[in-house]
Description:
Blueprint: H1 2-5, E1 11-15, E2 18-25, E3 29-35, E4 45-49, E5 53-58, E6 65-68, E7 73-83, E8 86-93, H2 112-132
Antiparallel strand pairs: 1-2, 2-3, 3-8, 4-5, 5-6, 7-8
Amino acid sequence: MAEKLAPEKRHSFVHNGNTVFEWDQTLDEVNMYIKRPMEVRPQQFHCVIRSNHLTFGIKGSPPFLDHDLAHPVKTDCSFWTIEDDIMHITLQKRDKGQMWASPLMGDGQLDPYAADIEQKRLMLQRFQEEVSC
Length: 133
C-alpha cells in the first residue's frame, strides 16, 4: 500500500538554469533532494533543521540554503542523510496532511495547476489511509 501513496514524481526548483533541489511530499513529510558535488565529502556537510528554518551547506562556507520553511516541522522527527550521492532532507510535517506548495518560503512554489493536482493527490492518500485502517 505504501508504494501507492508515494509521490509519482519530484518537483524541481530551478534557478538560472540549474536545479537547486528537487522535492516531493506525502501526508506526513516533505523530502528534499540535493545532488552532492563529487568533490565534497559527506562529512563536510552541515545541516540544521529548526521548526521553521533550514540551514544547509558545507562546513566553513556560507550556507547553500538558509531559508525559512513554508510550514512548521517536527524537529525531533526530521533528519538528513546521504544516499547514492544525493543529500536527502526529510522534514516531518507538524500538521499531517497539509499540502505544501514548496518546502521553502518563497522559493520553488508550485504553479496553481500543479498545486491543485498535489492537493488532490494528498486527499486521495488520506482517503486510502482511512479506508485501510
